[in-house]
């Protein structure tokens, strides 16, 4: 799991650096991710021949991920490309994980020196994996959810939103406020409760979200303009909420499966 852990941290840092408003330079996100990858390989002592090859693959995939996901969020097309790239990378790293070096290095020495209570019986590889999962759920999880919503048409691309006038009908993401903040918090709570063995409490968190959002969804459905076609289907707001929530939960449960 060493390579997967390093990849998760690098992807998470790169996605945290991204700015929705475009205030950061275009290449800052992949650069931050690659630098994080190099720094972690040094402090964990993961720099064997097989490790270097794997980390180069991760760096290339990271650059591809940031660029393809940025374009998809802009124009709404080819959402399968960044999602497929990320999935293929994780599968490949897991398939060849037996060649990875055991992490130690300066990070291991620091953990022994710091004598942290939670790190007394935890290996460096475990610390690295948990750090990767936390950063991944904070940032990359949001982008995965957004890509899936774009793929099914439940979210409008950035270019479309920018071209619309102020009088245009708001999309579901504008009506259900706080999704970008609540999503990471929700995933981290589910991950933390799952690691603690409190699966019942994690299910309560999932149920509570639906109960808290239900009045907003109902109110939005009453105030929505009439449909422009006779197609029978799920309400846009409901589709956005259900698909976004289920993808977010799957990301959290997938992270929990890796951590267990």
TrEMBL record:
Provide the alphabetized UniProt keywords. Membrane, Transmembrane, Transmembrane helix
For this UniProt entry, which segments traverse the membrane? 34-67, 79-100, 127-149, 188-208, 240-259
Q: What is this protein called?
A: Integral membrane protein
